[in-house]
Write a structure and sequence with these properties.
With 425 residues, the protein is an alpha/beta fold. Helix content is 47%, strand content 14%.
Length: 425
């Protein structure tokens, strides 16, 4: 039997290759509907690797999971490293004229929709308000993904989020708590909010003893925190908890994995890391607390996660509405100890983790209890791993694609009606 005809080849034979260039604007035939499911193309506006930040990594993973994409890279002034080939456009973060220029340029590309990754810190202008210049100049449907939502926004922050939500076809958040907060604090219509979980890689559930030899680690139990280093991570709380932990479990260690966030490095240098190192020395923990000061990619993070006995997210900001670190740890099936910030409270419910107040005594008690109970660690990790199957990147990518298709089809309806009315005139 011959192979089934490819819908793209069919369109080219029937209408000519030039028709592909106008396909995203029209939805007036069965051919267009068939090909759109194959050809739908998304422009992601965000920071992007080699930029080292959580949203850049998230966008890279989401773009790969979503398929056909191009990138609009938000570029800070100090960026000099070349971007990968999927970056077709750059916005210089602090140059307001770039925002409208690039938005209008997208209209001439074969793009169906725009995915706007939002955090106040990555867009230019006061509170990142230049994102509004970008979205106002777009002539394409857009979806905004919100990575940080303040419970007590300033008037300007509330205005920016409200206008962004009003100017886009849908707003994505990563937890039910964040969706509820958008309605309460920002007045966003719940019907315009989509909850799509933070994606995670597909890591097998294995015992840490199997992974430790690959990192040349001994058999001693260790706690792990990872990610880009900066104030607000709460690592000083976890370090302050370690004397009691070492007294109860003398072989225990705490590893802090990751380089300093580039924005923190630019503003403050390594002052935060040095303050943590000074704290470790003052507590006499130089042999129990280890800093691995380098940027680690997806594969190496996976190896460290699989080797860890407990993962710690000691964030003092209890309003935090998302954490890629916590999500990633769940995907690896780790027993997690976290402060009860809103995202952790939601995801670690049902025995999927341990919540502890953001103080050293509460954290040390949680650490000691888990380190002394391997069966409980395994049970918590298994529940977290099972829950995270809905968060795997391929499934998250498909949910975004379904959303992108809905907003592009909704956009196409008026054009389709107009074409039909013209034909019948």
């Amino acid at each position: 039997m011959g192979r089934s005809p490819d819908p793209v080849e069919h369109i080219v034979r029937r209408h000519g290759r030039a028709w592909l260039d106008v396909l995203p604007r029209f939805g007036d035939s069965p051919d267009a509907a068939a090909v759109r499911s194959v050809l739908i193309r998304i422009a992601f506006a965000s920071t992007y690797p080699p930029r080292r930040c959580g949203i850049a990594s998230y966008t890279s993973d989401l773009g790969r999971a979503s398929g056909n994409r191009e990138i609009v890279a938000l570029t800070p002034p100090e960026h000099e490293t070349p971007y990968p080939t999927e970056v077709h456009h750059r916005i210089r973060r602090d140059i307001v004229e770039d925002y409208g220029r690039v938005a209008r340029a997208l209209d001439g590309c074969r793009v169906d929709a725009v995915s706007i990754q939002h955090d106040f810190s990555i867009w230019g202008g006061p509170d990142g308000e230049f994102v509004l210049d970008f979205v106002r100049a777009l002539n394409l449907p857009a979806v905004a993904t919100l990575h940080a939502i303040s419970r007590r926004p300033t008037a300007n922050q509330r205005r920016i989020v409200s206008e962004l939500a009003g100017a886009t076809a849908a707003t994505v958040v990563m937890s039910e708590a964040a969706a509820s907060l958008l309605g309460r604090a920002y007045g966003i219509d719940p019907g315009r909010i989509e909850v799509i979980p933070h994606g995670v890689p597909d890591l097998p559930l294995i015992d840490p003893s199997q992974a430790k030899p690959g990192l040349s680690l001994g058999e001693a139990p260790f706690l792990l925190s990872f990610g880009l280093l900066g104030p607000g991570k709460g690592y000083e709380l976890a370090i302050a908890a370690m004397p009691a932990v070492v007294a109860a479990v003398p072989s225990a260690r705490y590893v802090i994995l990751g380089s300093t966030h580039p924005d923190v490095l630019r503003r403050e240098g390594e002052s935060y890391r040095r303050s943590l190192q000074d704290q470790v020395r003052a507590l006499g923990l130089s042999n129990q607390v280890e800093f691995v000061d380098r940027f680690v990619g997806r594969t190496e993070i996976g190896r460290w996660l699989q080797a860890a006995d407990v993962v710690v997210t000691p964030y003092p900001n209890l309003e935090q509405t998302v954490s890629g670190t916590l999500s990633h740890a769940m995907g690896a099936g780790k027993a997690i100890v976290s402060t009860p910030f809103s995202y952790a409270t939601e995801l670690l419910a049902g025995g999927r983790g341990v919540l502890a107040k953001p103080d050293p005594a509460a954290l040390s008690a949680a650490f000691i209890a888990l380190l002394g109970d391997p069966a409980r660690r395994s049970a918590i990790g298994a529940r977290a791993h099972a829950y995270s199957r809905q968060m795997l990147w391929p499934g998250v990518g498909q949910r975004y694609l379904q959303l992108f298709k809905r907003v592009t089809e909704k956009r196409a309806l008026p054009a389709r009606r107009s074409m039909l009315e013209s034909a019948n005139a």
